[in-house]
Amino acid sequence: MRRLPLAIRSNSRTRS
């Protein structure tokens, strides 16, 4: 995660 919006960051957390 670099400088992605909160929405995308949350999405990545869910993917993990």
SSE blueprint:
Blueprint: H1 6-15
Structure description:
The protein is mostly helical. Helix content is 62%, strand content 0%. It contains one helix and no strands.
Largest sheet: none
The poorly predicted ranges are none
Quaternary assembly: single chain
Number of helices in the DSSP assignment:
1
Query: Per the principal axes of the C-alpha atoms, what is the gross shape?
Result: elongated
What distance lies between the first and last C-alpha atoms, to the nearest angstrom?
12 Å
Key features of this structure:
0% strand; 16 residues; 62% helix; elongated
Question: How is this structure best summarized?
Answer:
With 16 residues, this protein is mostly helical. The protein has one helix at residues 6-15.
